[in-house]
């Protein structure tokens, strides 16, 4: 190969890998269009119930505020939700990983957010 062709090819490869890295870094999260979808509510309810079970805190889902999904050998749901312990209400960010075909669902993260 001529040096110039070689340089152009090299630049193309660098550019393509930079684009690929950027896509991975942003994680490919896309907003859930309709957070009133019963399945979204079900995921949120699972997250709150699971967190309550693991932490020993009483917590009940009030509503889903917003949500995003990411496709990763299944679907990751990242939901902002409001939950109450009976006396006060707080916002949380929950991440639930679901593989529908395996009936697999796991709460990977549940953290308070300050709105
Ligand atoms: C969102 O989902 C709910 C429940 O399925 C449905 O009643 C409502 O019409 C949907 N809204 C939109 C904008 O699609
Ligand atoms: C579910 O997620 C928690 C927290 O990330 C992890 O400790 C646990 O091993 C996971 N369970 C399964 C079945 O993947």
UniProtKB/TrEMBL annotation:
Keyword vocabulary terms for this entry: Protease inhibitor, Signal, Thiol protease inhibitor
Cystatin domain residues: 24-113
SMART domains: CY (SM00043)
Molecular function terms from GO: cysteine-type endopeptidase inhibitor activity
Signal found in the keyword field: yes
UniProt keyword annotation of Mitochondrion present: no
Signal peptide range: 1-20
InterPro entries named in the record: Cystatin_dom, Cystatin_sf
Listed PANTHER family: CYSTEINE PROTEINASE INHIBITOR 5
Protein name, per record: Cystatin domain-containing protein
Organism: Phaseolus vulgaris
Source organism phylogeny: Eukaryota, Viridiplantae, Streptophyta, Embryophyta, Tracheophyta
